[in-house]
Write a structure and sequence with these properties.
Keywords: GTP-binding, Hydrolase, Nucleotide-binding. InterPro entries: Gliding_Motility_GTPase, Gpn, P-loop_NTPase. The chain has helices at 38-45, 108-112, 131-140, 159-165, 182-199; strands spanning 3-4, 10-11, 24-31, 54-56, 75-77, 81-86, 91-97, 117-122, 144-149, 174-177. It has 207 residues and is α/β, with parallel strands linked by helices. The longest helix has 18 residues, at 182-199.
Amino acid sequence: MDYRTSEGITGPRSEDTLPASAAAAVKVVIVGGFGVGKTTMVGSVSEIRPLTTEETMTQAGVGVDDIAGIERKTETTVAMDFGRISLNEQLVLYLFGTPGQERFWFLWNGLFEGALGAVVLIDTRRLEVSFDAVGRLEERGVPFVVAVNAFPEAPDHPMAELRAAMDLPDSVPMIDCDARDRASSRDTLLALVRHLQSLHTVTPETP
C-alpha cells in the first residue's frame, strides 16, 4: 500500500513495512465456499490493514449464487482478500483469501500460484460448499489443513464424522477455529505451518 508523505513522496506506511529481521516470506491461501469466513479470517489476523474486494450483493446474483443458510450476507469478495502476519521475527505469511462464489472460481488458479499451503474453512451447516476447494488443492498438490469455523447455531459434529463426510485422509489436520478471533485464526495458521514442516521433515534411515 502506498501513501503520500508530507514531503510528497509516495511510500508504504511505517506499520506496513516488513520487519528488518524477516528472513522468509510464505504465500498462504485461505479457501472455502461462499460465506464460510475467509474475509473475516484475513481481517482478524492481519497485522496490516487488509486489502479486500468486497462488493454489495445485488439482484444480479439472484438465482446464480447459492445463499442458502447465509441469507443475511450482504457483501461478497469478487477478487481476493490480502493480509500479512509475522508468526515470529523471521517468518512472515502473506495471506490471500479466495472468492467463494462459483462464478469467480476462474481466479483461483492465479491465487494458487506459488502458494506453499492453504487453510480450507468449512461451515458445518454447509459442508458441500467447500468440497470443490479441497478437490482443487488436491489436484494441484497444495498441502492444506481444514478449519471448522465456529458459527452461531451451527451443528456440532465429532471431527471423525466431519472427516468422513469430507473424505479426508488422516494425514490432513482438522482443527476448530473461530475466524472472528485473532488468536484462533493465528493458531490455525500455526497448525498449517507445523503441517508443512512435518511434510518436509526427512526421517533418518535406520542403519
